[in-house]
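How a chain folds remains the central question behind the approach discussed here. This step matters because it turns folding into a mapping between discrete strings. The sequence in question and its structure tokens are set out directly beneath this paragraph.
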Amino acid sequence: MTVVRPIINPALLRSVAGRFPTGVTVITTATSTGPAGFTCQSFTSLSVDPPPISFNVSRSSDTWPPVREAGRFCVSILAADQQDTARAFARRHTDRFAGIAHSCLLGNGTPRLSGATAWLEATVEDTYAGGDHLVVLGRVTAAIAGEREEALLFHRAAPMDRPVPRRKG
């Protein structure tokens, strides 16, 4: 049996997938040379018991190797008004933490970004190949819900400048 696979235009696929809004997070870790982190909109919680989470990271990321080597990370779930933070952590070859308030108040010593809606600490459990990305599986070790509720969304290749609508009732 011959399987015929359609050729998918990468620009079309990006356009179609970009119509699905996702939350925006920043994945951070602590290294011997200082904090490291990157913007990530492919984060998801997989289960409550046990508490695994996952995110995808580009194989060409210059920030993934320090996270992998540290073996631990923090997920800061960005608030609706943190577009500048999302952009800062998406830039390559810059000091992404310059001007970004953060602290290391959670248990594993990873930086958490101030003003986020929530934070999760986790350890790296495993990685899987996923085309030009890696799928990272992490185990949650701590969780903090912040005071802010409206999350930043990524839609059509850009952070949205409006909050997620609250549910009624």
Q: What stands out?
A: The chain is about 15% helix and 40% strand.
